[in-house]
Amino acid sequence: MEHSPVGDKHTGGMRSIGLCVYPFREVHGGMSVEGDATVSTSLPVPEIATLSHVVNAYLEDEKTVVVKLSDTLRLPFNSSDVVVTNQTNGARLTVTNVDIVQPQRVALVGNLQLALGAQSEWNPCDDVTRMTKVNENLYQFTGKLPSGTFHYKIAFNGTFDNALPYADAVLTVPEGGATVVFSYIMYDLTTRQREIYDSINAPHATLPTSTDGVLSDLLAITLADAPDITDALLVTLAERGQNSVVPRSVLNNVRYQYTGDDLGDTYTSEATTFRVWSPTASDVQVLLYNSEMGALTRQVAMHKSDQGTWYARAEGDFANWYYLYLVTIHGVTQTVVDPYVRAIAVNGIRGMIVQLAATNPNEWETDAHKTLANPVDAVVYEVHVRDFSIHQNSGMTNKGRYLAFTERDTKGPDDVVTGVDSLVQLGISHVQLLPVEEFASVDENAPDQYNWGYDPRNYNVPEGAYATIPHGTARVTEFKRLVQSLHQANIGVILDVVYNHTYVTFDSDFNKLVPQYYYRTDYSGYYTNGSGVGNELATERPMVQKFVCDSLRYWMQEYHVDGFRFDLMALIGVSTMKRASEELHTLNPNALLYGEPWMGGGSALAGAELVTKGQQKGLGFGAFNDDMRNALVGSMFDAHNRGFPTGSVGQGGPVKTSVMGSIDSFAAAPGETVNYATSHDNYTLWDKIAISNGDDTEYDRILMQELVMAIVFTSQGQPFIQGGDEFLRTKNGNDNSYNAGDAVNQFDWGRKARHHDVFDYYAGLIHLRNNHPAFRLRSADDVRKHLNFIGSPDNTVAFQLTGHANGDAWTNIVVIYNPTRANAIIVLPEGSWTIVGTQGHVGEASLGQAAGTVVVPGIACIILYQ
To answer: Which residues contact 654 (CB under 8 A, 6 or more apart)?
Structure first.
């Protein structure tokens, strides 16, 4: 999913908001696409109340109910006007206090933080512009500003408060600068609105100094005794109606945090045990079926167990049986597919009990992870399972299937090498697969349906559409065979994982098991939308974080995958990513982890938790370098926008920063930056260049593409390429082909035959990088010690790697990028130099000698060594 620069590529659905369900709009490649109304809820859509009413209520800790009102009321509020009833037993709970709820942090946002000394990527949880709480209704900040015009807003807990009347207040500081006092009033007693004041625009504003008479629409109700979370509670406010109470943050209590490793079903030939986390349930049953679509065969009652879990043991051999949970929560009973299930019926309608050892291919026990000393040693190749082999000219038998990756000696047009052998020819170290966790946007029984798969449904099961048959355990065994085959070719497997949202919200299995716990919601009960597609998983909550980490470990242990690429990683959260990195590197020190350091919309996650660029420093995972991408190919918002190799002037600075591994930008070490020009999102590299440079000859556009990739592969960091770019893959200008089908997305292996010179250039770059560790420096200190820039004409970049960098056999290396159309003359460091890279050619064989100066042809990368 690209938020930088665009949205996502998920299929449509219905977004659930409280009890209301309405169609939502999704962002696909920068375009708004109507969600298709395929997901529904069994609850009716209520009429919107026009009178003052209770909007929503949450049990936030053992004895606190937070109530959201449709309008404000004035404090003090009589606690006798609040009634909390236990609907399960009819008892009335004692209310001891009613107070307003205040945000934990209120801060200023805008370009004024630059003048105040904050980082350019401002974090609302930083103390630099955090406002001081004067009283329950007033926050203030005082700062010295230079002269100039400044814009500012207010943020709560890392999120913008878009309800402010001044969405973008403007402050003009006079010459000489001034000390400015900013004031934020939660509720102005006169206007009944929220207000921002500053001492320049409103020097005589009267500010409240007491909590008396404060207006609020958010109340904290304190109970005398902690209720049972399995009981249904109802809160009633005088003249404001009533609403049910949903246990939410109270479930973060340690007594509801299960730490065991047996969630889901655990099979033996003697019995199968089941454990599920559903702390608010009053009853849970296991429904067992002896066939995929057959009627109920057996029902087993579960009993309450440790930390909010339910447990059952079914005696007998249940291999290849199917099951569901029947869960009752606050009087509502629903069937649920186990989120921890390891196999499923077709389209995920039931869980499947399997003996996992029986799914292993021959010699699976000797299969081993891809070794990787450092992330900079990786060359990642992104590919969609179906795209890779589905074309009629692929030469592969298992077209569109996992098993295509097990085929060797496949040939395409003009006897060109295809498939895995082509990857070996190219020299890449890892294949990154677009999502293979079972997703909802295709019918697994329909062989011609297509989607990228960024709409997860069952996180621990391979997608059935890529198996030879979607029923039974074929998908499990065949995906293991894919991993095994790539490992035999010395290629690692990276999974593109989507733990930031799910396909459905209200009717998801997560929500049925523990309503509104697994998703971020505001106090009104609205599902927040940091993903841009209707919901975001609340990975900061203990049992959601546990699920994500358990799932990642399962894929690494059971399927031997070598790493993960995190979709919209910003939403996963720093604490979750840190824990995942620690646990995965304990399992496999060679694990390769990285992700998108952005999101698809405003998130409810605290700003300090958002994994934006820089937040990954020192935590063992990397981030996509969109700064480099924009410098190389131009903005993805504008197809006609150009980058450094395609004619944009003034991009030398960002290119140099990327060459250095972004260690002077967002990375603590080169291994933390994923250097790339294009990925599955947006245009292929060839299509982007064809649109932005449509008046250029095909020959010149090929030179531009080769220069783009020369920069990627000779820069410090971890290089990444979109599969098919090595033979000028085109999607005919489609910049968001998530559901465009095979005709647009398939690899046309005939293009490799026609553009084998481009393939050879890519392969030459990759093998040069693999063979010369100077291009793979591991620390910031090594980069600063061995890499320095040398003089070159305007709009060119030249640098040298010195002193047998990183143990390289070559003493010194010079690399020069010339994106201009004219020859560039570069003064070389002292001595004689051997040329190994020039326009259209790169390798280790000598292409000539140079001393004193070298002439660099237009649109070219020159590589020389001593």
So the answer is: 627, 628, 630, 631, 644
Helix (H) or strand (E) holding 386: helix 385-389
d(CA 200, CA 178): 9
Beta carbons of 324 and 335 less than 8 angstroms apart: yes
Residue 186 burial (10 A CB sphere; 0-12, 13-18, 19+): buried
Contact indicator for 534, 561 with CB cutoff of 8 Å: no
Catalytic residue among 217, 567, 609, 725: 567
Kindly report each contact of residues 332-339 with a partner whose C-beta sits within 8 Å and lies 24 or more positions away, as own/partner.
Answer: 333/283, 334/512, 335/287, 336/509, 336/512, 336/513, 337/458, 337/509, 338/264, 338/265, 338/274, 338/276, 338/509, 339/264, 339/458, 339/459, 339/460, 339/509, 339/510, 339/513, 339/547
- Going by C-alpha positions, the residue among 271, 362, 294, 280 that lies closest to residue 329 is 280
SS3 content of the chain, % helix, strand, coil (to 5): 25, 30, 45
**Interatomic CA distance for residues 237 and 862, integer angstroms:** 75
pLDDT at 408: 98
Q: Which residues contact 359 (CB under 8 A, 6 or more apart)?
A: 473, 476, 477, 480
pLDDT at 269: 97
Residue 431 has what pLDDT? 98
Q: Return the exposure string of 396-424: e unless at least 16 CB atoms fall within 10 Å of the residue's CB, then b.
A: bebbbbbbbbbbeebbbbeebbbbbbbbe
pLDDT < 50 positions in the chain: 2-8, 10-50, 118-122, 162-163, 165
HSE-CB at 557 with a 13 A cutoff on CA atoms is 14
pLDDT at 196: 82
Three-state DSSP class for residue 336: strand
Token pair listed for 15 = 């977004």
The DSSP result for 165-190, as a single string, is S-TTEEEEEPTT-EEEEEEEESS-TT
Write down the pLDDT at residue 158: 55
**pLDDT tens digits along 190-216:** 666 677 888 888 877 777 776 566 667
Least Cα distance to 840 among 702, 685, 659 occurs for: 702
3-state secondary structure of 489: coil
pTM, to two decimals: 0.89
Cα–Cα distance between 420 and 576 in angstroms, integer?
A: 34
- What pLDDT sits at residue 150? 84
Catalytic residue among 382, 437, 438, 596: 596
HSE-up of 128 (CA within 13 Å, CB side)?
A: 18
Q: Give residue 292's pLDDT.
A: 97
Active site residue 567: yes
Alpha-carbon torsion (72, 77, 78, 79), positive or negative: positive
Q: Nearest-CA neighbor of 217 among 71, 54, 18, 50?
A: 71
**Cα–Cα distance measured from residue 834 to residue 854, given in angstroms and rounded to the nearest whole number:** 11
- Rounded to the nearest 5 degrees, what angle is found at the Cα of 40, between the Cα atoms of 39 and 43? 160
Q: Alpha-carbon distance 113 to 121, whole Å?
A: 9
Residues 527-564: pLDDT tens digits? 999 999 999 999 999 999 999 999 999 999 999 999 99
